[in-house]
Write a structure and sequence with these properties.
Structural class: mainly beta
Low-confidence stretches: none
Radius of gyration: 13 Å
Shape: globular
Order of helices and strands: EEEEEEEEEEE
Strand content: over 45%
Helix content: under 10%
Distance between the termini: 37 Å
Oligomer: single chain
Number of strands: 11
């Protein structure tokens, strides 16, 4: 199983970014996908979840209405569209899945929002 995030970077407050997580090594369309983030000195927190067919999503209260999780099962990729970014969104963002009861994480990607 491999998860590879991309699309991070530096953006000004109020800006937008789209993160991608390319998955391989498992049947992507069978698995829910999650985005997490970890800010310096803080615990890793769940940001968003999407069901295996994309029909169900859930978000942390802190990002609800600003972030959108989506997936393309034909491309084995999950996305996190982030809008109205705030400095407090600065963190390393990770995608995660569970395959046969084992949790797999991507390597993480830095998102920095300047004020």
């Amino acid at each position: 199983v491999q998860l590879v995030e991309s699309g991070g970077g530096l953006v000004q407050s109020g800006g937008s970014l789209r993160l991608s997580c390319a998955a391989s090594g498992f049947t992507f369309s069978d698995c829910a996908m999650r985005w997490y983030r970890q800010a310096p000195g803080k615990e890793r927190e769940l940001v968003a979840i999407i069901g295996s067919d994309g029909g169900s999503t859930n978000y942390a209260d802190s990002v609800k209405g600003r972030f959108t999780i989506s997936r393309d099962n034909a491309k084995n990729t999950v996305y996190l569209q982030m809008t109205s970014l705030k400095p407090e969104d600065t963190a390393v963002y990770y995608c995660r899945t569970t395959v046969r009861s084992i949790r797999y994480w991507g390597q993480g990607i830095q998102v920095t929002v300047s004020s």
